């Protein structure tokens, strides 16, 4: 398995306004680990400002495949929050 969209993501990021991208509602889902949510830390360092985080206990690398229910629950909670705050049109 490869990270097939990595090149496309890099092209998108390079062509997108940093100010606009920084306001994108984002959910950083990570597995439980001793370092906390490193994805959230990386996204904050990249300039994103509207980040919610979820750490899924008892998961390893394949977050969705290993247990889709907690992953979907985190996604749905974030979506409800975004809609309630009016962060999307």
Low-confidence stretches: none
Q: What's the total helix number?
A: 5
Number of strands: 2
Distance N terminus to C terminus? 35 Å
What is the mean predicted local confidence, pLDDT?
A: 82
Helix content: 40-55%
Shape: globular
Pattern of helices and strands? HHEHEHH
| Structural class by secondary-structure content | alpha+beta
- Rg computed from alpha carbons, rounded to a whole number of angstroms: 14 Å
The domain count comes to: 1
Strand order of the largest sheet: 1-2
Sketch the major β-sheet.
2 strands, parallel
Proportion of beta-strand residues? 5-15%
Topology:
Blueprint: H1 6-15, H2 18-22, E1 26-31, H3 38-45, E2 51-56, H4 63-66, H5 68-85
Parallel strand pairs: 1-2
Kindly describe this structure.
The protein is an alpha+beta fold and 89 residues long. The protein has one domain. Helices cover 51% and strands 13% of the residues. The protein contains five helices and two strands, in the order H-H-E-H-E-H-H. It has helices at 6-15, 18-22, 38-45, 63-66, 68-85; strands at residues 26-31, 51-56. Strands 1-2 form a two-stranded parallel sheet. Helix 3 links the parallel strand 1 and strand 2. The longest helix is centred in the C-terminal third of the chain and has 18 residues, at 68-85. The relative contact order is 0.15.
